[in-house]
Amino acid sequence: MLAGGARGPGRPPGRAGAAPARAAGAGRPGRVRRRDGRRRAHGRAAAGAPGYRVAPAGPPPLRAADPALADRAVELLGLPEIAGWFLDPESVQSDALEVQEARESRLVVSDQIKAERQEAILARVIEREFTPEARRRWGRRFAEMAWVFEATDRGEHAALAAAAAAMFDDSEASLTRHPLPRALAQRALELASEVAAGRLRAADVSRKP
Question: What is the rounded end-to-end Cα distance, in angstroms, of the chain?
Answer without folding.
Answer: 64
